[in-house]
Amino acid sequence: MRAVRTTEHNAYQIHYHFVTPVKYRLSIFGRPDREQTLIRICSEIEERYDWIFEQVGIDQNHIHYLLSAAPKYSPSEIIQAIKSITAKELFRRHPDLREELWHGELWTDGFFIATVGEGGNRDAIKRYVANQGKKKEISPQLKLFDF
Q1: Is residue 15 a part of any domain in this protein?
Q2: Distance between CA atoms of 14 and 4, rounded to whole angstroms?
Q3: Span 97-132, pLDDT tens digits
């Protein structure tokens, strides 16, 4: 089980799985120098935004990110920042990429996102939410996570 992260006002366990395809599905990765640059850029993003890249999976023409971020950031804000910063920095550090992508964009406009569950399952959470505010004298309240 992953650790509960905290900010000044909340505790959370939020994990996202993002996939960002390269524009035109071109195979621009598979080169160690570009892959290492992407990993370094992700580390820099972690420091700037206080996000945690738990895993970065690099394929030839798309990238998988498993990351944790505070609830103050929407998934759209997160992926917009990641795509923007990685594109700008990859183009700056590897100018030859612009030629491969016809001087265009690095990433497609779209992306894939899924939330990654931590502890309880959907049915347990559904029962928990449905029973809020109801008094139960026999059984204790359902506990979703151990904090």
Answers
A1: yes
A2: 9
A3: 999 998 789 999 999 998 887 655 556 656 765 676
Q: Flag whether 91 is in a domain.
A: yes
Domain assignment of residue 141, yes or no:
no
The range of the structural domain enclosing residue 58 comes to 5-117
Residue 111 contacts residue 87 (beta carbons within 8 Å): no
Other Cβ atoms less than 10 A from the Cβ of 67: the count is 23
Question: Do residues 17 and 113 make contact, with C-beta atoms less than 8 angstroms apart?
Answer: yes
Overall domain count for the chain: 1
pTM: 0.79
> 134 lies in a domain?
no
CATH code: domain of residue 111? 3.30.70.1290
CA separation for the pair 140, 147 (Å, rounded): 17
Write down how long the chain is. 147
